[in-house]
Queue: 4 jobs
Job 1
Amino acid sequence: MRAEEVLELLRGVENPFTGMDIVSEGLVTKVVVEEDKTTIYVAFARNTPVHPFAMAVNWPIQARIVRDMVKVLGGKLGYFEIVDDTTLQRYYPLEDEMEV
């Protein structure tokens, strides 16, 4: 699958806070398709104020976005990672959320 096709699938993921899709909103900053994996870079850290309260409020929204990304991409891509483009933190949905 090409990066453009991955982006098109991700347009189906909505930010529950803004109601916009995550691609149009700019939360997906880069998609790297390699032979054995696809890496999707997201701008979570950049868009979260560095304050404990803001981080606590944003975490459930980010977790929901990651869960929805896995639902949209699961079964269509082989192995893929979701990585923050600033901190390089990898986001993993809970195991029960990975069931599609």
Job 2
Amino acid sequence: MARYSFRLPDIGEGIAEAEIVAWHVKIGERVEEDAQLADMMTDKATVEMESPVSGIVVELAGEVGDLIPIGSTLAVIETDGDGNGDVEAPPADTPVEEEIAAETPGAEEVSVAEVAAPAPVVAPAPTPAPAPAPTPVAAPAHDRQVLASPAVRARAKDLGVDLGQVHAEGDRIRHSDLDAFLRYSGGQGYHAPGASRARADEPIKVIGMRRKIAENMAASKRAIPHFTYVEEMDVTALEDMRADLNANRGGRPKLTMLPFLIVAICRTIPQFPMINARYDDEGGVVTRYGAVHLGMATQTDAGLMVPVIRDAQDKNVWQLASEISRLAEAARTGKAKVEELTGSTLTVTSLGPLGGIATTPVINRPEVAIIGPNKIVERPVFDGDELRRAKLMNLSISCDHRVVDGWDAASYVQALKKLIETPVLLFAD
């Protein structure tokens, strides 16, 4: 028997460590060659680690949520063949079964030393100090007379409250005393009819995607001086055009608002190159990109992910709709590739029909801007002297004030507004 030490391999350029997000084995279990050992998360993707050998798992590097350096031991496996020499074999007189049991949490085996050990001598307990006199507590209703009006008594009866437990501020219990008891009696076991009980506190370890999101958002807010600009847009004509295109789309994907917005974003970027950029904090360099690699914030069960539409400026609305659907599905099912989750130059985030009046989105660092369309609503508007029904949408943009000035952000959004409100321009050369 020998031990095989499986070391965490290099799983990406520039990656120094990875987080354990799931173990698929336990100490003492047998694992087969090529079976899953663990899921490891880096800044870019989640990678499945497979066992290179068959055998019994005798050591695991840490718990879910721990960070493991590249090249360090992830797992040690007892094999039938030769080991790799990274970990010393156990002494010859130590059976493997005993070692595994000793390392397995909750093992039921008891060592010989533990059985043979004499019972510990228990010293006599010291005489306890006299306890302080207890604070007087109001006696239950059946032990003392409770002074209260018939109305208070009737209300307490309807609520199932024992007036003997209610503290009176004056000489008798009043409605205000009963109200105070109802507000603060949750910890005394009282449960008012129709009220919901408080649930037990639930500590949840922040790991995996949730931890990455927390780290990235915190770093973005610490490092970037955000400002947000919001503008209202009349999307009535655009919504009419979208309905016509969808009615005659044939086998092509259904169009949402997002493909049109992306076309407008890409058409206005050449006039405002500072929007489609990245800021290198350490080098003090801003890179303005010619191509628009558009990040698309997508909500998944694992948390917020940002798949990237490559060269969005070269795609029409139908191609964008297909790519949006494909990338969103890949992100939600965990099948998105590393290259599909990295390299964005500008991000769009939308709550869809959930909407909201306006949002103040957090920049996807190291980008310098993020655009957030909000919910479309119908409202009456004045068109000259005429009153008409219009479909309106607020659009938010958050920018890095180190790179983008307020005037530039406002000017960019006004250029977007012109295209959105006159949608035929989206298709004009």
Job 3
Amino acid sequence: MLNPVLTQTGPVQGREDDGVRSWLGIPYAAPPWGRHRFAPPQAPTPWSSVRDASSYGPPAPQGLQFPGLEIPPSTDPAPDCLTLNIWAPSAAPEALPVMVWFHGGAYLAGAGSERAYNGTALVREGVLVVTVNYRMGVDGFGQIDGAVSNRGILDQIAALEWVRDNIAGFGGDPQKVTIFGESAGAGCVLALLTMPRARNLFHRAIAQSIPRMFFSPPLAHSVTQAVAAAAGIEGTADARTLATLTPQTLADATRLVISTMGNRADEWGTLAYTSSSSGPIFGPIVDGDTMPEDPWTALRNGAAREIPIITGHTRDEYRLFTAQQKRFSITTEEADTALHIFAPNGDADGYRAIMPQAEPGELYEKVNTDYLFLAPTLQAAMAAADAGGHVFVYELCIDPVGGMGSPHAIDLPLTFNTLDTGMGALIPEPTDSVIESGIRMRSAWTRFAATGNPGWPQWGPDQSVQIWGGENPVVRYPESERLELSLTDSCGALELLQHQELGR
């Protein structure tokens, strides 16, 4: 057994396996239920005896079940879910860089305890890894009368404060903290880069496939009201009223609202057209308080100028969602509809002109990819670079044997070397080339955590990007033509917010 590590709330005892130590299920905040429901995270109750940290804490209540997520259903109506997990080398001569992971899952599902996020492979590269559970759905991201906004991200800030105050005892350097996340986790990273309450809590950031969905308060409130109505609450749903419902009741109501999103186009604009498997109905809220301004504007104004950033996306992001929906054949009419909804400025002909030979299925996939991930990711990169920041961009372009190219989330098994679980199913037959890309990617991530430089040129006028795949070259950004078209959009990455404000 390992010697106990003393934290500010009490001693914890982990375990050791094959040269890697781990401490699991450590509370960084009190359970967010009862009098703490819909409140900012509160300090956990201290303990005096040694706490067993050899098993994960329970996940936060899940709003959806996604393929690849290995989270067993929970019947606990009030789980002690605000916990984190730590992996560290058994021996290290000095304090090591720390990488703090925020999971994805459409702001509705996921947990730091997923086997896909085991920190062992990254730890062997010379870092500490921390994974975090946070509130999701209405509890984490609903805009509720009488409650603070962005509670899920405030949970993450509380976890980062815990890391600042305690990680040295586990062998980590609190002055070298890198936050990283994918999909909704990348959206949280983008938010944290620009939120005043997160300032000085981390020093580098990696955002893998940033999603578009950042909400204005009116739109976020409308979504929350729809969920409340689906749960049987009439009229305005405030914190006191919603607190009478269990998280699972709200999760069930959320699924019902998602299934009828297409009927809300007049009310919700483009949000109503995003599918249940790709477009979350919750996300960070630009409330003017916890998040004073949208992150793209904040980055352009220099909010994170001193924080080196890696960001990028997969080549075939949307292909995961068409596969989940079993939409293997897209008609010309379906492609035309998607182009009119999602193409920059609704210019379907202009979008079609840059891919004149593309079949309907390719057009459908590309325009959804660009709207949901490519544009918000690259616009964040350019905003930070324009402000004088240090920004490094990548694109993942592997083609696994028996797979479906490089869809959304295929970077997860490469990031953590967890090809045997979760989204590792997207790589049924890992080739030497795919394995090598993963090795290089993990090496770049950990080098960046240590030095702020992953090993390829920064984003600039020449649009140099690191390609993960094949020979792993550094080239001019392959999607430059589609990126340039996205920059003509009068609303850009903020289309959803502005449409709601205009009542579109």
Job 4
Amino acid sequence: MLSIIGLITILIVVVLLISGKVSPFVGLLLVPIGGAFAAGFNLEQIGEFFTSGTQSVFSVVVMFIFAIIFFGIMQDVGVFDPLINKMIALTRGNVIAVAVGTVIIAAIAQMDGSGASTFLITIPALLPLYKRLKMNPYLLLMLVGTSASIVNMVPWGGPLGRVAAVLEMDVTELWRPLIQIQLIGLVLLVVLAVALGYREKRLIAKRVGEFGKTDDMESVVSDKEPQTKKAEGKPKFYWLNVALAISVIAVLVWGIIPAGFAFMIGVSIALPINYPNIQDQMGRIQAHAPGAILMATIILAAGSFLGILNGTEMLTSIATDLVTILPAFVIPYLHIIIGVFGVPFDLLLSTDAYYFALFPIVEQIVTDFGVSSLSAAYAMIIGNIIGTFVSPLSPALWLALGLAGLEMGKHIRYSFMMMWGFSIVLLAIAIAMGVIVL
């Protein structure tokens, strides 16, 4: 009965998250409370489960709040703009170079962990160039989405924060083994971009004949900054801001202090350097607070959700009962199987549903058969994360489609198999390198 209640609870949460009828905060908070009441627990016990769950994700919440504010300020002061503008200038007029440059520009833009801002930077800047060169705009969307997904394995990106909340561990410890996968992934994506660039060149030649540089290419590649929202009066201390951003990231990799503390220090240094006036400092915090608070509320609600599922032992009961149903030879490899089908899962489950509903069950099952929690986490992260920007459940993707004037169905048809194949290759590399232990 406990398993049935647990499965119904999780199913309702997943359906609500997919439907978009309620916010993740509401679904993650209220539904498990109803499940716990149905299982016979009283309000006092549920309160204890809530406390335990939210305390376990508190450090992740702090990290997200200050990471979003810090990188928001770095975007405001234009830390990444010269790199992006230079890449645009270098790639003008060459189809293969444009494809490769798209990967690099998107990787730089995604450093703030926000897919929406990445698309706001890359699509308006590169779409005119793609159109002038007669390149397929769906190639632009696929390359930007895949590059952003790889970079989104950073600690301040959503997936790692969610997994860290489930495992109750420091997010930077979760991230470090993934750095090598990110680097390899970006290198492989550059290689893929070269191959796709050659293919695109041939397709262009078939459509409109041999295509070379146009005399008015300068009109395509503007010297204007990418279309990101800037604070009035752009701050002057560019290289000091670059050094600060690099230092904060280096401290995260080093792991000498908690990630949240590192970002708090970064924000406290960035604000007075760039905005001496206290009203301007508060204005920057207020500008980026909505995104920070939104993520914090979701993570706290997820902590409550997991605290109740764990406290009531619903997850344990589900895992125990599933073990009796699944074939014995499948169970130790369940995380790998789910990882292989991670991109298709993105068409069915939202990010919250995948990491807060599916992952805890898989992790509970495979760890009982000697698989480490980290191996289960890495298999499901690497297998799924590339699918983020090919899913109709991604709000940022709808923004990108709107900016580019493209259709969701055509994007899925163009990009899905390529992104899924790329995801499986990364998963195989992670297994071969020992990041995922079978």
